[in-house]
């Protein structure tokens, strides 16, 4: 097994400005994201980039719409019907062995994969927290090593309690990685989850060297500047910048189901994001 790729957080901290502004999107919005002027698209993996043409019991294949494309980051690694903490290690390994080469086929060298997958990583009722963390550490090592063998990097995403019962806050994710001695894995700073958990933005200043990727949205995953939103996302970007992160930033929002309307929302959000972030440089 290939050794894990070293953490890139320290490298990212040497840049002068963000390396790009992107949007998490499925295939249906990819062209709208590009037309709206994003620097990159962050495709979702399970059920989008990687599909099962033969149904749920079939093997994984690449969605043809992504042929010939290249991407710097990806999200939604594991489908909800693969229970990572109770499946056999072989089943978990087989999944990563099948899907990560698909990701590699459309990935830039060293591309990041956000490992959130809340349903898949949720511990069943009655499983002690220590046992859930032990099992998830094994899963994460397998994902990390398989990703490294495919010139990809795993970044761990803390998820709020509404999505999983394993690893909720940025600080908890850092402690988990340290306690389990898992190197080569940084942590995603996602404002939606940080807000839901009531975590102080100072955690991003205190652990700025552990930030490996950033997801941003307005209140409740609204597009930036949408009615009902607020300016907390600006404070979030300031905290991330103060911590030293200079890597890519992706919008992860609930866009309109109408493609032209979604494109307009994306364009406006990107404009606000660029102006706010550029003011920090």
Structural overview:
By secondary structure, the protein is of the alpha/beta class. The chain has helices spanning 9-12, 30-35, 89-104, 118-121, 129-149, 170-179, 191-196, 202-206, 232-242, 259-278, and strands at residues 21-25, 40-43, 50-51, 61-62, 71-74, 107-115, 152-156, 186-190, 211-216, 249-251. The chain has a single domain (9-278), classed as Divalent-metal-dependent TIM barrel enzymes (TIM Barrel), CATH 3.20.20.150. The chain has an eight-stranded parallel sheet with strand order 2-1-10-9-8-7-6-5. Strands 3-4 form a two-stranded antiparallel ribbon. The longest helix is centred in the middle third of the chain and has 21 residues, at 129-149. The chain starts with 8 loop residues before the first helix and ends with a helix.
């Amino acid at each position: 097994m290939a050794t894990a790729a070293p953490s890139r957080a320290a490298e990212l901290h040497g840049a002068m400005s963000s390396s790009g502004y992107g949007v998490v999107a499925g295939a249906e919005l990819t062209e709208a994201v590009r037309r709206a002027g994003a620097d990159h698209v962050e495709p979702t993996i399970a059920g989008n980039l990687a599909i099962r043409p033969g149904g749920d019991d079939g093997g994984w294949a690449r969605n043809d719409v992504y042929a010939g494309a290249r991407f710097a980051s990806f999200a939604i690694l594991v489908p909800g019907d693969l229970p990572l903490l109770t499946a056999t290690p072989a089943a978990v390994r087989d999944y990563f062995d099948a899907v990560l080469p698909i990701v590699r086929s459309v990935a830039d060298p060293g591309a990041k994969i956000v490992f959130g997958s809340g349903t898949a990583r949720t511990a069943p009722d009655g499983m002690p927290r220590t046992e859930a963390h032990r099992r998830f550490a094994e899963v994460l090592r397998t994902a990390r090593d398989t990703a490294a063998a495919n010139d990809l990097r795993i970044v761990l995403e803390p998820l709020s309690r509404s999505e999983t019962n394993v690893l909720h806050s940025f600080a908890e994710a850092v402690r988990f990685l340290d306690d389990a001695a898992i190197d080569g894995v940084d942590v995603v700073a996602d404002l939606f989850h940080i807000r839901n958990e009531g975590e102080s933005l100072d955690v991003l200043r205190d652990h700025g060297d552990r930030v490996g990727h950033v997801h941003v949205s307005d209140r409740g995953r609204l597009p930036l500047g949408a009615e009902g939103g607020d300016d907390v996302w600006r404070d979030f970007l300031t905290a991330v910048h103060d911590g030293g992160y200079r890597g890519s930033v992706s919008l992860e929002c609930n866009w309109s189901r109408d493609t032209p309307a979604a494109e307009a929302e994306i364009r406006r959000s990107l404009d606000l994001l660029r102006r706010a972030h550029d003011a920090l440089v």
